[in-house]
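debug: dumping io for the single-chain case to check the tokenizer round-trip. Nothing else runs in this session.
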Amino acid sequence: MIYNPFKELIGLDTESDDKFYSEDFLESFDCINQASTILENCRSYKLKSIHEKVPNNTDFGTMFYNIDGNLSNFDSFSAELSMQKFTYSAIALAETNVSQNKGDLYKLSNYSHFYNDKIPNKTKGTGVCLYIHCSFNATINDKLISTTKNLESLFVTVNKGNEKVNVGVVYRSPNGDSKEFLNELTHLKSLFPKDTKSIILGDYNFDLLKRTNSTTQKFENLFLSLGFFPLISLATHSTNIQQHSCIDNILTNDIEHVTMSGVIDDMNSHHKPIIAMFNLCMPMNKNSSDQKLLQHYSFSKKNVDTLITDLQSKEDILANSTNFETFFDIFTHAIDSNCKLEKPKVSKRNPINNPWMTDGISEAISTKEELYDDWIASKKSKEFSPGGNIDLHIKFSNYRRCLKGVIKWQKNKYYCTKITDHKGDSKKTWEVINELRGKCKKTIKPQFCVNGVRITERRLIANKFNEYFASIASKLNEQVDGEMKIEPLPSFVEFLPKTNPNSMYLTDCTEGEISHIISELQNGKASDFPISVIKKVSHILSPVLSIQYNNLMSTGCFPAILKIGKISPIYKKDNEEQLQNYRPISTLPIFGKIFEKVIYSRLYGFLSSQGILHDSQFGFRKGHSTSHALNYSVHHIQQSLKAGNHVLGIFIDLSKAFDTIDHSILLKKLNTYGIRGRAHKLLESYLSNRKQYVGVLNETSDTLPVLFGVPQGSCLGPLLFLIYINDLTNSEKNSKFVLFADDTNIFIAAKSKNLAYKKANEVLSSVHRYMLANKLHINTGKSCYLEFSNSRSNKDEGATSDQEININGVPLERVHETKFLGVTIDEDLNWNAHRGKLAKKLATCCGMLNRIKDNIPTSLHKDLYHTLFESYLAYGITVWGGASNKKLEPLFKAQKMCTRIMFGDKEAYLDKFKTSARCRPYGEQILGSEFYRKEHTKPLFNTHEIMNVHNLYFYHCINDIFKVLKYRTPISLYSLFETSDRLGKETLILTPKPSDSYIYRAGTIWNTVRQNLMLTTFTCKPNHLKSSIKITIAHTQKEGEPNNWNLALNSVRQNSKTLKLTLPRLLKLAKAIVS
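debug: decoded output
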């Protein structure tokens, strides 16, 4: 039985037909004939024979498959896809049960993937996605995304050259409301791009083989009235062995260009994959994702050894080089002579889909197909019931189940072996892990649209990229100049502090300093010369470079050859053909980086000794972190609220702050702060006459001058930016600034709400004037503000409801929560929003680890846990982690789930569910730790030395406060603590009244620890303290019953003297630390 609603129309008088069709549809009998022919010719195909059946004029192939869960079926689907020997342009999946943030875990090589979010709180029977071949540019159509209980949809616009097609996937749950689905689908169609070819692939859960069904008729009438034609006429779904239905289909409004359609005999789920082929004048380049790599050098051991010998023979010449350019030429010539290939080696980086596939698996898939055919053949025999031979069906089902296990095992074995082969090479190991995570760089295609003109010539693309990146700062600064003409502004000089009478002196560097800098360079980082090679010749280069750098510092010259940066475009999001959707990553010459580190140590030392950098600046400074900035900000807000003030927090976003710095303004500021003479001349040389070029698609652009900004990818750039923005706090004295590099946050406190808003607008007016004078640009669209409150803040009856904060007449959005230095801060300061979002993030991490952990050797599981889970859990924990156990419970549950996934015995854990009754100890029966490992996660935490979330807070609080007190950095946070002046009590913190503040909580924890570890001074090293605290927490965590948690933090809360180290080895360790 096949489905063909058009057969009855051919030859009939359409005017007397009682069915409803659009006039356009009825006028096009050619389309009706074509649709009828496609449906009549719809066939079932075998995996290996599809490529033989595809017509030669096909250039756009599509597939749809209800996968019934990615986690269990994706690897098998991917393996069978590899066997088809045909490359589809678009692949759609339904019932993935995968949310948008986990899509990277399910990649197909040479395809871009697009996942829609699942229906909230639904774990099965939800989720759709699209895979579009890399030959095409694909952009999500946000208007056509739907996630309701009746309709899930995702659409992308696929284009190549001047041709484009709208491709989408639709899923209707059988539990949804069919009437609402039809209404939502009608609305969705109204949003389709006009005059665009469209292809809709989906599982509609309307059986088109039962046309007499009223809901099926309504669905059929709907898509026909909308001008869409169905392409599948065979059964696509079966249940209970014998029930068949056509509920999956592919609809299109471009029937003239359909070349074939069909169903693939596959039974990984109850659904069969369906396919449709088109001729859309959009030919697919199957090798479009190949990246030709031209290898010009070989740094083999033999070549490097020869290089070392060559350089050793030239040591005298290098040491006596009159200038840096001569040294650089000699070194470059030595590299070329010993390591450059006579002919560049060409290789392709073409991702192989399923590199773990073996011939055995391919044969096993073929065997599975044969077993399936045998069972289907038995269904046609009169000897058996309509369901066919039960024994053959059982044999097929068991073989299919076994094959899934074999595919999973083979994939695990492949990646485990690959990681083991890279043992000792952390970079390559993490490359494999990131491959499993789907964290790979997106390939750039030679196809861009610039000012409405499509360009494909690679050299031209490189030049356009360079022109775009080089013009960003100039265009932004032109906007400032325009505003300054309208309203004259004060000079930036008026915001400067008094001139520093002391001047910076450039001390000579030594051979040892250069050697140390080179040893700390990170291998594998992009550079003009491989860092590993620089390290191997360090003993030759260090004495030479120390002489060269000293000469350069004495003359105040930064070599021009070290001021050329290579820019690599990195795709961000949205349309891949638009230059603005890429960000630049700069690579600087390695000898320039080494010289920058020499200058940095002297410049930062001078700034620190003079106390020049403002205390409110927490970014890019030693001993400063985001946690420090957050705790300082929260303390200020809490104290202001406690005093009965109304507090506003304004969070300002700056556009391209590092790129728009005016060099002349920066040089003037350097002079004011005491960087004069040779130091000033050197930095002026460093900033001036810089150039850049873009390297992309194996082509390089022309060089262009860099007129603004500090060099990206340099260590000096961030420090120079801090100097540039250091006087921002001088723009307004009636507010509290908290800065982290270019993250600008301002807190306003006043006795009434009206006064707070008035004050905020005055402050922002001054800040705006400062920004314009310094050619910095506020992005008002991304800036916002919070109005903090608590039970103690007074309600201002006179406050108006239409109050607003604006910058230059543009109102800022008031929000109830916002991202602040990586955490979500809310107006009530209860951190519930942050903990809620973190819990979701951790759940995503658990899903990701569950997907990849079997592919990674067990020896690396603990590293995976710390890197891919605990790093998120511990971030900013000193700010939000001091909450009750109840509020931390969702995070603790996620942590326990992750621990079970990474370290639990899954088979043993599931074993206890095989019986209806749970066996538990009785009387005085004692069970071993293995039993509790199945029952409770505490043994897993203890065995693998993992701190739970409560103890993580305890651990990080102690370490943070110890460093603050020991180094008195950041001074803004250190000044909030009051220490005892009694002899022998110098390390005791005088805590304020009990509260939820960081100062009280951290101070209480610290006082308990210092007493038990007998810390009377701050002379012990931070690492020693860390070790001691870890042992303390591990011991506390192990105490008590195997299924009850004993928390170090609880001990502190109950009694500040209860945290005692009862083990003799801990007391011995504490005494050793003090001594």
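debug: round-trip ok. The first strand starts at residue 43 and ends at 45.
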